[in-house]
# Entry
Amino acid sequence: MGEFVCRSLKIADSKREYVNISFSIKSSLALVGESGSGKSLTLKALLGMLPAGFRAQMECESDFELLRGRTLAYVPQNPFTALSPLTKIRDQWILYEERAAEMMERVGLEAALLDRFVPELSGGQLQRIVIAMALATEPKLLLLDEPTTALDAQLRETVVELLLQLQRRYGFKMLFVTHDISTARKLCERITVIKDGRVVESGDMLSVTADPKSEYTRALIAANFANREFRR
# Structure
């Protein structure tokens, strides 16, 4: 599968332009920046879910069309709010029961958990479930909205390794939106750092994080992203 190239992504409302960036994803890309930098707006634009009043202009090239729920899938930050607490897990899948059970097994969970409710499961189990739901349609591009933020260090490691295993098996691309550079280094090959909706640095993950050229990137790394988000 070829490279996904977004030559231009601009997001604005009637008052101002919030995002004006470009990026490319060969295998996996971390989009990193402080709160308000434009990370979430970028995800929403790709998903076609911008708030009312916002508009996006995109010039993207790939060997697949961006179709939410088909070629494009999304893993939210908090699985507790993404799933209904009053509905059994099996009834939250838009799939045949056999397919749901198969996907559960692919992320290392027993199919019996389909009969549980959200409050009966751990954060790690629920994050695996939303990943399984996202991958059920065999997407070409997986959008990850800080999916390890609510997990402890051990569970973060487990989810990262799971995503890498699934990517090797199914070949999808990943766009990982995060403030956690430590986790991004383990998951992604490349990094794009944005500030106030503009790219300040982009390149190979290990090269950029080992020798950042931008003062802003150096400040982000120094702020200890593994534990808290850098804020203005």
The chain has eight helices and nine strands. The chain has two domains: 1-71+140-151+168-232, 80-138. The CA atoms of residues 73 and 135 lie 7 Å apart. The beta strands are 4-12, 17-25, 28-32, 55-61, 72-75, 141-145, 173-178, 190-195, 198-204.
